[in-house]
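Sharing a chain and its predicted structure for anyone who wants a worked example. Both blocks are below, sequence first, tokens second.
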Amino acid sequence: MAAIGFILAGLGGVGAFPFLQWFKDNKAVRWLAVVVLLVTAAIWAFTFYGALWAHMASFAKWVPATMATPAK
């Protein structure tokens, strides 16, 4: 999923200037670019949300080394 986000974000970034210059008056192409960037944002939001909760779950049990009980 993140790979698709990287690809769409890269295409959006690389294609932004040419689309702005060549298709300045074409609303359909501009809306297509908006949709692609919104899908990219949604993919990154989904990826971020999953990664955030996975990290929070793994850090929930963490304690500093000075407070950790030694394993027996």
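Comments welcome. The chain is about 75% helix and 0% strand.
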